[in-house]
Write a structure and sequence with these properties.
2 domains; Nitrilase/N-carbamoyl-D-aminoacid amidohydrolase; 519 residues; two-stranded antiparallel sheet; 18 helices; cell membrane; alpha/beta; globular
Length: 519
């Protein structure tokens, strides 16, 4: 094997090298276009082309050059792929257009360091081969779920949520899909370089995806489907937290729900009640009585003030939460993963001049994190694993909550990003979580995209966006567990680590080869 890796290095040295500026520009553009492989565009083939171009640009490059090439790729990926942040920062954050773009650029520079470090390690310590590039890619996607609390967005595996390679999701999760995508992308480059033996593993991976799709890990329970109604109030974000609009918000949701009492479950979205439970207890009691009279479970998003914990801590403990009330229904879930600049402002004192309008928004002022060992909501003898908004972007968090559930439920408010790709990217992640865990996902949102997603990750029904709507569905409870639910990300991470250990052990004596720059 050492001979094989030495041959790869020699082949790379013999190839003609482009001026540094060209691979940097190519990588910048290829990173920028990756988001178009995701929702709402769905050009899945870009998910192969984009990393293939990066892989090709790294050929013959020193580790320092690879760092800059990777940084360019990462900057393009995050600046374009997460530009939906502009709406929340500029429109709702009352920040100037120029400063908003600058903040997104800074974010892209910081997040781009993930790819920069990835490509630096690749060229510094490992031989040039898909068998080291793909596992490094997986490890750095995984790192984005926990470094500095994580920003787990724009994973390449999401491009195949409903097509071709998604059969790997119930086995190895989104990181397993990403691994296969990157390996195939690199294999294309190798094949174009006349290393035709890469046709064999590529064919095996494609056949494996087909075979994995034939496996059945879960099946419906032999019982009556759960009748569910989702309420989409379409409350504008700039009005949502105004004191004078609170009563009207409650009236909108109550009126939309009037015809739905009597169904098994009614779900209102995140923070559809824009007041703490301590300020609106009579309304909650009245809704609970109505739900019990009609045999309905009622689930709603609500800010929750934990008075007991506040006394113990000596300071207010506020939570973004979901509460279940009504007939045979109980439970309270407190959000575990909070959104920076969405639910709290990091270094808020220092940044008060940057985001002045958000400083007085109750949704932004100091929410606390919920515990990691919370119980699922209980509705009509069913367990519902809850996730609030951004939390569904974390594969292992959703997996852990789903392990003892019949359904998955998520509530969200994507009004912050109305008219952008953000809500559609978010929905695509919900689809992947449903596929990974083999459970129906119930998704209620304020402005969209409200939807029912089956255990295969397919959207069965969705409400129109940016308008008031009621979405009804009859959902079967599922039983059984996927391999991913049982084993989490450890199989793909372990396999990736093994490949990297082998690559490091059999690497040429000096992988980071220095090349003379062109005059």
């Amino acid at each position: 094997m050492r001979t094989y890796f030495h041959a790869l290095l020699k082949s790379s040295q013999q190839q003609k090298q482009l001026p540094m500026i060209l691979p940097f520009i190519i990588s910048l553009c290829s990173g920028a276009m990756l988001s178009f492989s995701l929702a709402p565009y769905y050009y899945w083939w870009i998910a192969l082309l984009s990393p293939a171009l990066l892989y090709a640009c790294l050929r013959q490059r020193s580790a320092k050059q690879a760092f800059l090439i990777g940084w360019g790729y990462g900057f393009g990926l995050w600046f374009v792929g997460a530009f939906w942040l502009y709406t929340s920062i500029h429109v709702y954050g009352d920040t100037s257009a120029v400063l908003s773009v600058l903040m997104i650029a800074i974010m892209a520079l910081v997040m781009g360091l993930f790819t920069a470090l990835q490509t630096w390690i690749y060229r510094r310590f490992f031989p040039e081969t898909p068998l080291t590039f793909a596992p490094l890619w997986v490890f750095f996607e995984w790192a984005k779920t926990w470094v500095f609390t994580g920003f787990p967005w724009l994973f390449v595996g999401y491009a195949f949520t409903e097509r071709f390679l998604d059969g790997y999701a119930p086995l190895f999760g989104v990181f397993g899909v990403s691994f296969v995508v990157i390996l195939l992308a690199c294999a294309i480059v190798e094949i174009l370089n006349k290393r035709l033996f890469w046709l064999v593993p590529s064919l095996i991976l494609l056949l494996g995806a087909w075979g994995a799709a034939q496996l059945q890990f879960v099946q419906p329970k032999n019982e009556k489907p759960l009748s569910v109604s989702l309420i989409q109030g379409n409350i504008p974000q700039d009005l949502k937290w105004l004191t004078e609009y609170q009563t009207q918000t409650l009236m909108i949701y109550a009126e939309l729900s009037r015809s739905e009492w009597g169904r098994d479950l009614i779900v209102w979205p995140e923070s559809s009640i824009p007041m703490f439970q301590t300020d609106i207890q009579p309304f909650l009691d009245a809704m609970k009585v109505q739900a019990q009279k009609t045999g309905t479970g009622w689930v709603t998003g609500i800010p929750y003030w934990d008075l007991k914990a506040s006394q113990q801590q000596g300071s207010p403990m506020f939570y973004n939460s979901i509460i279940a009330l009504g007939s045979q229904s109980e439970g309270l879930y407190k959000k575990q993963r909070l959104v920076p600049f969405g639910e709290y402002i990091p270094l808020s004192g220092m940044l008060s001049w940057v985001l002045p309008a958000l400083q007085n928004d109750p949704a932004m002022s100091g929410f606390s994190r919920g515990a990691s060992d919370q119980q699922p909501l209980h509705i009509k003898q069913h367990n519902l694993a809850a996730a609030i908004c951004y939390e569904v972007a974390y594969p292992n968090l959703t997996r852990r909550n789903a392990s003892n559930s019949d359904f998955l439920v998520t509530v969200s408010n994507d009004a912050w990003f109305t008219g952008t790709a953000g809500p559609w990217q978010h929905l695509q992640m919900v689809q992947m979580r449903a596929k990974e865990n083999g459970r129906w996902f119930i998704r209620a949102t304020n402005t969209g995209v409200t939807a029912f997603i089956d255990h295969q990750g397919h959207i069965v029904r969705q409400a129109p966006i940016d308008q008031k709507a009621v979405l009804r569905g009859d959902l079967p409870a599922m039983q059984g567990q996927t391999l991913y639910t049982r084993l989490s990300d450890w199989p793909i991470l372990g396999f990736s680590a093994l490949l990297l250990i082998m690559g490091w052990f059999f690497r040429p004596r000096k992988v980071d080869v220095s090349f003379k720059s062109r005059r």
